């Protein structure tokens, strides 16, 4: 599937006056896929044919990402993205999901799990959650320099100075040494980041790093206390949230279910889709 074909299959709904892209294909129990930063639901395209044979698969580009609107004055937050996902489930009439999440989407998944603990009568059930590489435990994240700069006081300037070459170098650096993205793949990811002036909101979205730290008790607590079966599927070659994150998962989560994909980096679903 090409990125153009993926875009042509998008549907849209309105969230707080903004147009949000989503995909809804397949038949069966609902598998809700939550993507990471700075990319989009396109991250799941290599898994998509196999998953849609087994599930009704729903994925959305969070506001500020991919083919969704990227309003420049929006107050981006992980809580807001969780609200968006709940609105999408309501829009589609879905009342039970399995979660498959990655990176930024992991934290949205943690917030959804926390909401289920807060109010057990929420209008949807979470049956299982499979989490790929992401910042589940803020103290175990080894953020790259570009991530720190985007989240800092000069983030707005840093974002506008990001060139295609710099993006490709930084993006490739989080992949495994033997599973590097091709030039075509890098071009597609760059297109998604730049779409609708996405670089102009990257600094606002990057505040999620501090948001994770402020809400650690809530979101780590959700992993500790949830009755939902959890699995952490980790590419340990990831320099940002790889082996150290797996160690923390084993330490903090009761009866931890961890699978390591040797040689794989930050994007297991892109680097090793069959193994995932």
Largest beta sheet: strand ordering:
1-2-4-3-5-6-7-8
Oligomer: single chain
Helix-strand topology string = HEEEHEHEHEHHHHHHHEHEH
Weakly predicted, low-confidence segments: none
Radius of gyration: 17 Å
> What's the total number of strands?
8
Please give the share of residues in helix: 40-55%
Helical element count? 13
Question: What's the end-to-end separation, in Å?
Answer: 18 Å
**Proportion of residues in extended strands:** 15-25%
Largest beta-sheet characterization: 8 strands, mixed
Structural class: alpha/beta
Identify the overall geometry: globular
- How much is the average pLDDT? 96
What does this protein look like?
The chain is of the alpha/beta class and 276 residues long. 41% of the residues lie in helices and 16% in strands. It has 13 helices and eight strands. The protein has helices spanning 3-8, 48-54, 78-92, 104-118, 145-151, 155-161, 164-172, 183-194, 202-205, 208-214, 216-225, 243-252, 268-271, and strands at residues 11-15, 18-25, 30-34, 56-60, 96-101, 125-132, 230-234, 258-260. An eight-stranded mixed β-sheet has the order 1-2-4-3-5-6-7-8, sandwiched between helices. Helix 3 (78-92) crosses helix 4 (104-118), helix 4 (104-118) packs across helix 11 and helix 5 (145-151) crosses helix 6 (155-161). The longest helix has 15 residues, at 78-92.
